[in-house]
Known about the structure:
100 residues
Amino acid sequence: MDVAVEAAEPSLVVIAQTYYHNWHAEIDDQPAPLLRANVAFQAVQVPGGTHKVHLFYRDRAFEIGAAISICMWVNCLVSFLALRRRDLPASPAPKDGDYF
């Protein structure tokens, strides 16, 4: 979420979005602390002037879980391909009169 802010003096920008610790803020592409406002909302303190506030969500647990899942899918694919390529013993040739 990007917001352009013009403030005459240092101000607190309150965002009506539920505060959660995985949300992060940047002001003019520099990390900034994301504060809790009015018990449940998010806020960012901006200096006077025109600034770009960028809010983004980053969940490290999700990223780690996704990486593990991708590794396991690759492992399953490699195992499946390895088992398909494994030489199996040849079946005996059918004798005369064998239908099965």
